[in-house]
Amino acid sequence: MRSLRIILLLVFLLTSAAVAQEQARTLPLPPDSLAQWYPPANKRQVWLHTMFSLRRSMQAVGEYNALGDHPRAARWAERFARDYKRLAEMVPEWQDEIDGAQAERLVAAAKQGDSSSVSSALNRLGTTCRSCHNENRAIVTLIYRMPDYKDVMVENSDTMEEIPYPQHMERIGTLMNRVKIAQEDGRHAAAQEAGSAFIAGVKDLAASCGTCHKDDAPRARIFGPTIQQALVKLDGELQQNNQKGTDEALGTLGAYACGRCHSIHKNGAELRRALLPRD
Questions:
Q1: Largest pairwise CA distance in the chain
Q2: Which of 1.20.120, 1.10.472, 1.10.155, 2.40.30 is the CATH number of 153-275?
């Protein structure tokens, strides 16, 4: 009975994963014209900064309108209307999402000092923003702002050969399991050999973080003192053929290095590839 429950659970999980992937493929993708406003085509991330500017302008209009400072509200309203209507030029496929007439009404109401009409226009414009964000923001973030490691190369410190990141990850995962398998079966020399290669592979992996991260903080969070100590402990426990100590060191590495990094990079990258199989 227990085996049957396990089999049914596995079937459920596999089916759920397949359904989730199929649903991901049916999500509406943003138009190709958006790509020109994000890296690598655009280093300044113009689209993102335009979004920031719009939000700031709306906030300024609302706050000055509440204070009765109509000249400043009008100035910010004009800035908002300019950036807002420009979105339709930047991504023509989304022009139906832009209510240019409402933006003009906002400007006119602000200039007239009509606080009630300003608030009404802001609310209606906010609805257009939320509608577009609800449909597109998560997908756009995943495609254009979520880091993807598939093109990163990892240099092997022994051979100086550059290995694609996915291939290197598969290798160290294999080595990690080889350590545990060999120790459990009493093959001490094989466990030591795999452990030494695994430790070197983790260090090589840490060095590859600089490909994307230009400061030390992200690498320190994943490969900081806790992980460095775990690597030293792993080497020492393998030398002494201590299976319990080896398992503890590998557990620390799995939780604080593998787990942390995967939660940031692996899940997002796999979702991205599910959405964009051509990528």
A1: 85
A2: 1.20.120
